[in-house]
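Q: Got a minute? One more chain.
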Amino acid sequence: MQEPLKIFKNVSVKSISPDDNMHYFFGYYDLCPFDKTGRYHLAHRVSFFDRLPEKDDICEIGLIDTENNTFKKLGETTAWNFQQGALLNWYGDDAVIYNVRTEKGYGALIKYLNGAEKEIPMPLATSSSVSKKGISINFNRIFDFRPGYGYAG
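A: Always. Here it is, folded:
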């Protein structure tokens, strides 16, 4: 494993993503990617980074274990972009939530770390695991005037 880079007196930086020729990113700046222990980091994993996603491009959703730099895949989605990902976020201590494309259109999925799932009939721009509420927006409309922030298709 690579030694952390010291950039300030008390701050070190190290790469946590696996060296597997895939591209990793998290999402928007207003979300925290780390679990409460600081060990697991949410991540999107894709095979390209040099163009906008198209309707059928698959993005894997998962966790990076920062102790051994491994990726654990939790699921997949075709409802994502490079600016915000699939709005992947922790949903309590034992689940994640992210947007998906279904046969009926866009939705969201609560994926419990034990493998159980719960479907939400609308995509979410933000949600609260405490109040069990969320806000949805029209991601197709956003794509029409701001492609980097909406979902293709």
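A: The mean pLDDT is 90.
Q: Perfect, thanks.
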